[in-house]
Write a structure and sequence with these properties.
The protein has 520 residues and is α+β, with helices and mostly antiparallel strands. Among the domains are: 1-65, no CATH class; 91-302 and 431-474, no CATH class. 39% of the residues lie in helices and 13% in strands. Strands 1-9-10-2-3-6 form a six-stranded antiparallel sheet, with helices on both faces. It has a four-stranded antiparallel sheet with strand order 7-8-11-12. The protein has a two-stranded antiparallel sheet with strand order 4-5. Helix 5 runs parallel beside helix 8 (188-201). The longest helix is centred in the C-terminal third of the chain and has 21 residues, at 348-368. The radius of gyration is 23 Å and the shape is globular. The two termini are 30 Å apart.
């Protein structure tokens, strides 16, 4: 339990260091007082000013808690998670409540118009569970429709980033319902109440979120003028009247009403009730592609996380395609032949090995990561025994390789990044939640349905327009996703009882870290 909360505390401290590093008047004074010059001389990601340990990546002291912990991108969301657990909620209850709050205070990265993935450690069953809460493309849209939009606005190269073309069914609310049914304890009304209250009364917006928020009008305004964005008045009314600045209070009464309906009618209302009908009518009004039937047909999926061992000490687990999680597993397997610790953190050899492993893994990612319900590609093919070890043999620490071909197939795709939020929660019983949620590029598509108070994602832009590619646009298909929640186990953890009883035996893998990569 303590290990899980330690991981969460580190996540929170990394965020704090970013804020401190922006204060040049303080940092030089603190560096002058440093007693260890070799520590102060570390590069950008070196120790923080008050970190006495000398660790290469030290920033602030880790937050350690005996009962529960949470780490999110906004203090209100973190406090909401802790408050929910104080009221008897589970880590999952807390994660859902925090995610709802982030949709209000950080719409630059997430919201109920986007998708969600989660990995959950359940101490009752001693099992790891994965959930794919990503939505599918409209059943009424075709590859020809997407190509026509690409020809009109993107010189034929890719699906436009704004407007109705890249919008897929939002999967977040359905994922909340499924995760809550299995791991939750408190009512949905209790979980939504804090966000509903702040949406009506006003929530403070911090510096970083305010900074990203200002890019919304700069992107959506020109897109609306060009015709790419079919409707912009709702987004302007909801988010940019005026655009929040640092320290201002942001109110979203429409979102409060939507969350209140979800709280009382249940998550299913988002897909088969009044909310779904409002969304379907909206897309029909603006001549978009989604309809009520697309929302009604949506369902998420419980999936088994894919795991690999690294040097027989750590086991890393990710979700398979349509996420890019397998790439992390591939890289670990390729790097196993290198002694990165001996090379030294940040050394030329260490960086070379890691960069080349990433290039090899990303070649496979571009060629074969897609919705396996359509591609027919078993994700285990990318982590099968010996495959990545053989791929890694091509890494030469003295010479960068030519652009690598995929080991799986001869194909390519343009995969870009966007904006995302990650949160993680651990409760007193040892449940650990690794949850990631995103609208993809920026705030999303620029489209806000009448009176609902949230923006739809633009994740469908990641579909390929190549008819031969596994990730090609097709009706009712999930696009490739860059966001990945992750979980790690480790052997020989403190407090291991096996070795105390039988010294000749190795301690088993135990829960260690819940974390995520916000790739867009």
């Amino acid at each position: 339990m303590l290990v899980g909360t330690l991981a969460l505390g580190i996540s929170a401290c990394v965020t704090i260091q970013t804020q401190v590093a922006d204060a040049p008047s303080v940092k030089p004074q603190m560096q002058a007082l440093a007693t260890a010059p070799e520590v102060a001389a570390e590069p950008i990601l070196g120790p923080g000013d008050r970190q006495p340990s000398g660790r290469a990546l030290g920033t602030r002291s880790a937050v350690v808690a005996p009962n529960a912990a949470a780490a999110t991108a906004h203090p209100l969301a973190t406090q909401t998670a802790l408050d929910i657990m104080k009221r008897g909620g589970t880590a999952m209850d807390a994660a859902i409540a925090a995610n709802a709050m982030l949709g209000l205070v950080e719409p630059t990265g997430n919201g109920i118009g986007g998708d969600l993935y989660a990995i959950v450690w359940d101490p009752k069953t001693n099992q790891l569970y994965g959930y794919n809460g990503s939505g599918r493309s409209p059943m009424g849209a075709t590859l020809a429709d997407m190509q026509a939009k690409a020809d009109q606005f993107m010189e034929g190269e890719e699906i436009p980033p704004f407007g109705a073309a890249p919008v897929t069914v939002p999967g977040t609310v359905e994922a909340w319902g499924a995760l809550h049914e299995r791991f939750g304890r408190l009512t949905f009304n209790t979980l939504m109440e804090p966000t509903i209250r702040y949406a009506r009364d006003g929530a403070p917006i911090p510096e970083v979120i305010a900074y990203y928020w200002q890019f919304g009008p700069r992107r959506f305004g020109p897109a609306a003028e060009s015709g790419m964005l079919e409707e912009y008045d709702n987004a302007k009314k909801t988010y940019f009247s005026p655009t929040p600045i640092e320290g201002s209070l942001f109110r979203n009464p429409d979102l409060a009403d939507t969350l209140e309906r979800i709280a009382y009618a249940g998550p299913e209302d988002f897909y088969t009730g009044e909310i779904a009908r409002t969304m379907g009518d909206y897309f029909e009004r603006i001549d978009g592609y989604l309809r009520f039937e697309d929302f009604a047909a949506h369902d998420g999926e419980w999936v088994e996380p894919l795991c690999v061992e690294y040097r027989e000490q750590v086991k890393l687990c990710e979700l398979g395609p349509n996420t890019q999680g397998v790439a992390a597993l591939q890289m670990l397997q390729m790097l196993e032949r290198f002694d990165l610790r001996e090379m030294g953190y940040g050394s030329a050899d260490s960086l070379m090995a890691q960069v080349e492993a990433k290039r090899l893994a990303f070649a496979d990612r571009a060629a074969g990561y897609a919705d396996d319900a359509f591609s027919g590609i078993d994700p285990n093919v990318f982590i099968r025994p010996g495959y990545n070890a053989a791929r890694g043999e091509s890494i030469d620490l003295s010479t960068a390789m030519a652009p690598p071909a995929p080991g799986y197939a001869d194909a390519d795709a343009k995969l870009e990044d966007g904006d995302t939020t990650y949160l993680t929660v651990t409760d007193k019983d040892g449940m650990m939640v690794s949850l990631i949620q995103s609208n993809y590029r920026g705030m999303g598509s620029g489209l806000v349905a009448d009176g609902l108070g949230f923006m739809f994602q633009d994740r469908g832009q990641l579909f390929s327009l190549d008819p031969e590619h596994p990730n090609v646009f097709e009706p009712g298909k999930r696009p490739f996703h860059t966001i990945i929640p992750a979980f790690a186990f480790k052997k020989d953890m403190p407090g291991c009882q096996v070795r105390a009883i039988a010294p000749e035996l190795a301690c088993p893998y135990e829960p260690w870290l819940s974390f995520g990569l916000m790739g867009g």
